[in-house]
Amino acid sequence: MTAIVESAALQTWTADVFVRLGLHQEDATVVAQTLVEADLRGVGSHGVQRMTTYARGLRGGTIVAQPQISIVQDSGWAAVLDGGGGMGQLAAQRGMQLALERAAERGHGAVAVRNSGHCGAMAYYAMQAAQRRSIGLAVTNAGINMMPTGGSQKLVGNNPLAYAIPTGRDAPIVLDMATSVVAGGKLDVARLRGEPIPLGWALDGAGRPTTDPVAARQGALLPLGGPKGYGLAVVLDVLCGVLSGGRFGNGLGGPGSSHFFEALQIEAFTPYDDFLARIGELVDQLHACPPAEGASGVVLPGEPEHRLRAQRLRDGLPLEDTLIGELDDLAASLGAPRLEKKPPA
Amino acid sequence: MTAIVESAALQTWTADVFVRLGLHQEDATVVAQTLVEADLRGVGSHGVQRMTTYARGLRGGTIVAQPQISIVQDSGWAAVLDGGGGMGQLAAQRGMQLALERAAERGHGAVAVRNSGHCGAMAYYAMQAAQRRSIGLAVTNAGINMMPTGGSQKLVGNNPLAYAIPTGRDAPIVLDMATSVVAGGKLDVARLRGEPIPLGWALDGAGRPTTDPVAARQGALLPLGGPKGYGLAVVLDVLCGVLSGGRFGNGLGGPGSSHFFEALQIEAFTPYDDFLARIGELVDQLHACPPAEGASGVVLPGEPEHRLRAQRLRDGLPLEDTLIGELDDLAASLGAPRLEKKPPA
To answer: Is there a contact between A275 and B242 if contact means CB atoms under 8 Å apart?
Structure first.
């Protein structure tokens, strides 16, 4: 069972909760926006569902509520930020904004971030570049959840990357993907439904292939395409953790993570209108592709999420009753009002 | 059956063949080096095996033997090159060199290349950045060989990317991967051996899953991880073809392709020695991972190729007799000497 919540109401409510958890108002607004945007785009695993975990971190002191975010090294086009151990969204947003400022001055900017935390869906950051005539790249390392190819111990995360590219059409191209076959959240979905998972998604705690989502959660995710996913996860760990001087490799067993953001202005390569004409042609080619049997047609990466967002902005967001219960409990523990549900139509 | 050929002799012989096909001596040397390096690293699909195809293109006029490579747009840190319709290796090498020159001056360089051709293994270009204290990225678009997710017509290539990262150890980290489940060359290997291919590698000409490597070659490769591989292939096509104003999308049905090269100097983010200390720690962690059952242990991306190269530099390269026959025929048609084989030990 689900209830419907207006996204604007959800965002205000979420920001209020984070203020009560000790964040500055403007920081709480940033965090709330990243979470609600993920829910709008149908990426519930990175939406308000994360709030109880974040609240535990803020209350337990593993997340600093009012972090000092500082520039550690500055080379003009490139910089390294220290996130001060705060909510990852705050350091990530500063990182992407700094990369975009430098790109506005110089055509390109890149920022590595250390001493940050879980920062939600990477698409949120990359998409800001696409709004400024730039190609955006946003990367983070994740907690350790995969075994390297040939190994029997978890040592790499399924580190995700997001690319965003303007198209001049309704939806930018947005690719946001983890380097595992599936995200960990899919195991939880199967568990809640009491369904097995396909072989090839994960290993159990003893490193054996499994179809049991519970055993898989105690085991390891499998890297996308075996050595390809493992290799890409290592490269992204270097861009984030090794470049920034933050956590990487088995250091990610502890709290805190590292990110990498880059913005490339398209005008540095080609007149923007020419770029839009060409990419529009690519979008049209793909849209015109005859559908495969049983499929409804071809979409560009990020297009379904874009459509869902428009629909959910209009009609509201469906949230599971169990989730709403958790959120209301959290609010009650902070003396905050309950989340306002939309009356049934 | 194979014969052994000294890599130095193979390189001299290969360059001589390309001179006879109309290339300038220094260009022939560049092409020969990229091919022999691929063979040394065990990537035979991008080695001298390609020579007969290149020769057909050069003789048929679809590849310009002495191309004019020119700068189309120059923004300092970024540039676009036109490859003049020549061998892709020449434009790609100029592109990576230009990106590295700009990175030497400014810390960062990126070059998109259009009107180029098949340029061999991307690792060759990315690795040049790793030799200059930089993280290198090399991307190309490929001929159309995959269907977009949900579509029934081939419209994207299994566009590969290569990252190279210095480690301060013997081997740099080198990830060179196509965005399909397997490279097309693996279908040919199965066909030559008369073996079926696993389901999940490819579709037949009617878009149905197949285990027949011959039917698969007339069909389509499957993208790595479905929508992830499709999405990544689209993004890489944008970086190469759309950014440069070269061929992209279904334009890749014709000859010619586009590339993208980037170099990020590590010192722009962190002192180089600190970076080496950290990445050495990551390498050590991965090497120390207990092996999975039946596996010999964990290697970093590019490490097996690095070891094989050292062994083949010392002991010579094994080439299949059928390939040697093809190469000797090519040489004979150009009045060139036969390839010199190493006498059996």
So the answer is: yes
- What pLDDT, in 10s, does the model give residues A179-190? 999 988 788 878
B291 touches chain A (CB under 8 A): yes
Contacts of A341 (CB under 8 A, 6+ apart): A3, A4, A5, A324
Tell me the whole-structure pTM to 2 decimals: 0.97
Domains, chain B, ranges and CATH? 1-65+328-345 (1.10.1530.10), 75-180+227-292 (3.30.1370.60)
B345: pLDDT strictly greater than 70:
no
- Structural contact between residues A77 and A106, judged by C-beta atoms closer than 8 angstroms: yes
Structure tokens at A92: 């990530």
Among the listed residues B312, B339, B313, B334, the one whose alpha carbon sits nearest the alpha carbon of residue B324: B339
pLDDT digits (tens, 9 = 90+) for B75-112: 999 999 999 999 999 999 999 999 999 999 999 999 99
For the record, the structure tokens of A302 come out as: 């990020």
Catalytic residue flag (residue A24):
no
Q: Is A115 exposed, middle or buried (0-12, 13-18, 19+ CB in 10 A)?
A: buried
Catalytic residues of B: 118
Does A172 score more than 80 pLDDT?
A: yes
Residues 6+ apart with CB under 8 A from A77: A102, A106, A108, A109, A110, B77, B106, B107, B108, B268
Query: Looking at the complex, does the CB of residue B76 fall below 8 Å from at least one CB of chain A?
Result: yes
In this prediction, residue B343 has a pLDDT band, given cuts at 50, 70 and 90, of confident
Q: Is the dihedral of CA A53, A235, A231, A252 positive or negative?
A: negative
DSSP 8-state assignment for residue B117: -
| Interface predicted TM-score (ipTM) of this complex, two decimals | 0.97
